[in-house]
Description:
alpha/beta, Spore Coat Polysaccharide Biosynthesis Protein SpsA, Chain A, 2 domains, globular
Amino acid sequence: xxxxxxxxxxxxxxxxxxxxxxxxxxxxxxxxxxxxxxxxxxxxxxxxxxxxxxxxxxxxxxxxxxxxxxxxxxxxxxxxxxxxxxxxxxxxxxxxxxxxxxxxxxxxxxxxxxxxxxxxxxxxxxxxxxxxxxxxxxxxxxxxxxxxxxxxxxxxxxxxxxxxxxxxxxxxxxxxxxxxxxxxxxxxxxxxxxxxxxxxxxxxxxxxxxxxxxxxxxxxxxxxxxxxxxxxxxxxxxxxxxxxxxxxxxxxxxxxxxxxxxxxx
Length: 265
């Protein structure tokens, strides 16, 4: 994969047990894929559909160990194009939206990060967030793969990486994308959100689970990581905003104060 001044790489984090079901969009000029396979047993390309292996817009790289943040960090090092988006092996990509986001990033040197939406989460027309708006610590919590992409040179110059303590396969199994985006913003990067569909997640995701105690602990740790001392004010606001997702008012209070969640009735 030789680099291009306008090229976009989509880095896909994959696990060996889901290789057979991986599907990519048809080849599209200016767009190529870096498939990072963790826990590979045998050749990294074993188990993928033959039609995928025949594509010249796909590069497959085995990675030791596990952890979504480790895969994302490897993508930052291995990708060769100036623009990099992140995806997972259970997502459906929409090249038209990805290339539109790339064009916005390419057209403004002041931008380091752009974010679209998943098809399932894009607000309807007329909604206050169905407009172009600047990303901040307070409105980028919803950003996740495959919605966002970065200018690789800007990430390198700021020395920002994904925190390996967060994300699937880590002790705190969520929040890696939000932490990475906010670390970039704290380092002086400028990011925009646009009402553009970059892909979809047709299956239940980790972020949909509000009953697992480990995930609730991880959510709280994410807010502490992002906001530091300000989290004391953010936690009750977050719990109120998502009050209908908690198992009970007592569970919401336990989240705010960092106490064990009450046993289900």
